[in-house]
């Protein structure tokens, strides 16, 4: 993959956000040599999510809903790798993935004529979610190292 120097203007581009996420997941994947060790290890990551504050002002504990409260690190590991693969290879449009939530549908219908608003709505959301997922991948990598007894 071609390396692009990050100037001040490019730092928060979607391209760079995706690259940071993919890099964090690749690092996680290379670090986690035995994924089964992650089973039954609780996430306990509410402090880590505070570092990424979403633009819409929701709290970090609400953001933890992306990762089920009773989920373990293994399920997060699998989810992060799956999302990385979707970004790199495209999303398979299965019937379940086509279903939209009512709230998002209402926003899009209300703004049907304003494509710029729709674009910025989705861009902002994608940027926020990718930032949270990057944080999650970095946290999982660090926690795995702690679990197996490796230092930094």
Describe the structure.
This protein has 152 residues and is an all-alpha fold. Helix content is 59%, strand content 0%. The protein has helices at 14-31, 46-49, 60-63, 73-89, 95-98, 102-110, 115-148. Helix 1 packs parallel to helix 7 and helix 4 (73-89) crosses helix 7 (115-148). The radius of gyration is 17 Å and the shape is elongated.
List the helices and strands and how they pair.
Elements: H1 14-31, H2 46-49, H3 60-63, H4 73-89, H5 95-98, H6 102-110, H7 115-148
Mean pLDDT reading = 76
As a percent range, the share of strand residues is under 5%
The main sheet comes to: none
Order of helices and strands: HHHHHHH
Envelope shape: elongated
Which oligomerization state do the chains in this entry correspond to?
single chain
The number of helical runs is 7
Task: Estimate the helix proportion, in percent.
Answer: 55-70%
CA gyration radius, whole angstroms? 17 Å
């Amino acid at each position: 993959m071609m390396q692009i120097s990050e100037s001040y203007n490019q730092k928060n581009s979607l391209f760079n956000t995706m690259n940071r996420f993919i890099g964090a997941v690749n690092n996680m994947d290379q670090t986690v040599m035995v994924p089964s060790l992650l089973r039954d290890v609780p996430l306990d990551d509410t402090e880590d999510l505070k570092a990424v504050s979403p633009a819409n002002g929701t709290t970090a504990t609400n953001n933890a809903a992306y990762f089920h409260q009773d989920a373990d690190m293994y399920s997060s590991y699998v989810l992060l790798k799956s999302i990385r693969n979707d970004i790199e290879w495209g999303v398979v449009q299965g019937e379940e993935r086509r279903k939209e939530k009512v709230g998002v549908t209402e926003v899009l219908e209300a703004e049907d004529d304003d494509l710029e608003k729709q674009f910025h709505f989705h861009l902002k959301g994608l940027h926020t979610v990718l930032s949270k997922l990057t944080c999650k991948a970095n946290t999982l990598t660090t926690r795995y190292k702690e679990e197996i007894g490796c230092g930094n």
